[in-house]
Amino acid sequence: MPLNLNSPNELPKPDAQAGQRSHQLVEKIKQSIEDNNGQISFASFMQQALYTPGLGYYSSGLQKFGQRGDFITAPEVSPLFAQCLARQTAEIFRYLETPCVLEFGAGSGVLAVELLHALQQLDALPRHYYILELSAELKHRQKQQIDEAVPHLAERVVWLEQLPVQPLNAVVIVNEVLDAMPVECFAVAKNDCLQRLSVRVKDDVLEAKFTQASSVMVKVKQTIEQRIEQTLPPGYASEYNPQLSSWLSALSQTVAAGVVLLIDYGYSASEYYHPDRVNGTLMCYYRHRAHSQPLWYPGLQDITAFVDFTDVAYSAVKAGFSVAGYTSQAAFLLANGLSELHAEQLSDDTRQQLVLSQQIKTLTLPSEMGERFKVMALTKKIDVPLSGFTWQDYRNRL
Ligand SMILES: C[S@@+](CC[C@H](N)C(=O)[O-])C[C@H]1O[C@@H](n2cnc3c(N)ncnc32)[C@H](O)[C@@H]1O
């Protein structure tokens, strides 16, 4: 549950250096507001807050992942996550000529390390493991992690600045990346008019303000309403990812044949835009505290939103993919042998057993990551059932 906070003073105070960096970022954002006639869209604010080189949340040297950071992702929870993913990847590789892995947003690099390691054990190493990462700082960290943990496999890893022009036969892994893409926020006013959230400067501080929505946003709302077969009522606020469709089109140009595995917290449109979810899904994370104030501490806190998987499915089909499966993270991992992997790793060490079973609980329990996180498979020129979706397939909910 997000905390209901009235002031950033209720959060742990950043140290002087971090405070200084955040101040620098705010000055840059203010400049961009001035350059844009006094206001920028929320998505532009979020883009700058997360990705401004050297200052944005994902682009600075902050410790983000793990217990000492702000949040924990599945690959950070347990190597079992990558081991299950490796089984699915190896299965897909059997249908592809000279396959490779392409990982988007590789975070600390731990998934790449564990996946390469597990693929080696399955005798399914790809010649190339490509990583496309926006943050120069994270690229550096990923390289260090890979050089240290799997030096004998490091030469297979290639960092890309952009999607390759030459199409690939690939398994594309996108774990918790869609939730880190900028979103636009909207609200339905009392008179039913649609408003969009903008960021401006008032009394020298950043301020979020609802103003009249553009015709593009009105169209997006109409599409949502058609999909959920309901009208969003006055007072309803939510968000959408304006980059999703172009991102999937670009990805489709890159994938000649293969499977894109999207793993993220998200819902189908009818759950996402459910009448009860009147304040949307936008959330901020700062040292393991979740709250809903995106303008606080720019550059020092994560800003994220859930993924509308119905929108992903529609955009993916338009881009030339097939939607081959949609399930919960728990069902995907179990169908890829989580229990067997667990049994293989059991030892007499009681402490280690406890650690393993705690990791499995975190990955699979509905109250943890098991149900909130979903896995969607998008395929191109592969028409075989994928193991990860044999336990449960929620495509009928999309
Ligand atoms: C929440 S982190 C997840 C990191 C990692 N995948 C994990 O699960 O631990 C989000 C990551 O996505 C990256 N990212 C966001 N948008 C991206 C994009 N369009 N292309 C590539 N990477 C992106 C960020 O820089 C960051 O590394």
Taking Cα atoms only, what radius of gyration do you get, to the nearest Å?
21 Å
How much helicity do the residues have? Answer: 25-40%
Poorly predicted runs: none
Q: What percent strand?
A: 15-25%
Q: Total number of β-strand segments? A: 16
Total number of helices: 13
What is the general shape? globular
Q: Mind summarizing the main beta sheet?
A: 8 strands, mixed
Let me know the average pLDDT: 94
How far do the termini sit from each other?
A: 25 Å
Question: Structural class per helix/strand content?
Answer: alpha/beta
Bound molecules: S-adenosylmethionine
Order of helices and strands: HEHHHEHEHEEEEEHEHEHEEEEHEHHHE
Question: What would you note in describing this structure?
Answer:
The protein has 398 residues and is α/β, with parallel strands linked by helices. It contains 13 helices and 16 strands. Strands 2, 3, 4, 5, 10, 14, 15 and 16 form an 8-stranded mixed beta sheet that branches. Strands 1, 6, 7, 8 and 9 form a 5-stranded antiparallel beta sheet that branches. 46% of the residues are buried. The model has no long low-confidence stretch (mean pLDDT 94). The structure holds S-adenosylmethionine (SAM). Residues 58, 65, 73, 75-76, 104-107, 111, 132-135, 138, 175-177, 180-181 line the site of S-adenosylmethionine.
